[in-house]
């Protein structure tokens, strides 16, 4: 058995915890991020497509008897009300949060060996399932990957299971950015969560995400939360 996993945004936070726990469980892991592993800037679609065409992903997948893709990399984007959003930040967030998961999911399914089972996890967010003023870009992108997962599941591809998992409110660098975003109306709520100790550690969230991903009924419920 050769179990291989691809984890985006693996160099810190939840991605680092997922990568560490998968490796400890015997998975061979390919990390994809700007700073470590396969060096790819997921906010740059030209760079991502060039990397996919370059064969590194296909080479890694070759020989796997089981595949797991975790589209973990995420970008908050502009935490501002409509009419006050930076265009470059919005474009980057859409590329990281939506375009990259769609392209990577397609590539992993396409390059797998015949009969090799694939599990795909989109790391989603509660923000994709309810509106938060000031987060229209982030909410929209997470809603997009939710629907992508739902649609791929409806295609009933042989050996493919997929789910979008909201990992809870995790104490990561993104949370620090949220708490420093003066233009975000709900900022004080997130500051209070930090002060009360309500945030999950990346390690605990990763354990919960992987418990779902490795469960025998994974994919039967497409929209999950820890």
UniProtKB/TrEMBL annotation:
Output the InterPro entries linked to this UniProt entry.
Biopterin_syn/organic_redct (IPR051721), NAD(P)-bd_dom_sf (IPR036291), SDR_fam (IPR002347)
Q: Does the keyword Flavoprotein apply?
A: no
Write out the entry's keywords from A to Z. Answer: Cytoplasm, NADP, Oxidoreductase
Source species, domain of life: Bacteria
Q: Has the keyword Transmembrane helix been applied to this entry?
A: no
What subcellular locations does the record give?
Cytoplasm
The name of this protein is: SDR family NAD(P)-dependent oxidoreductase
Q: What is the species of this protein? A: Tessaracoccus lacteus
Q: What is the lineage of its organism?
A: Bacteria, Bacillati, Actinomycetota, Actinomycetes, Propionibacteriales
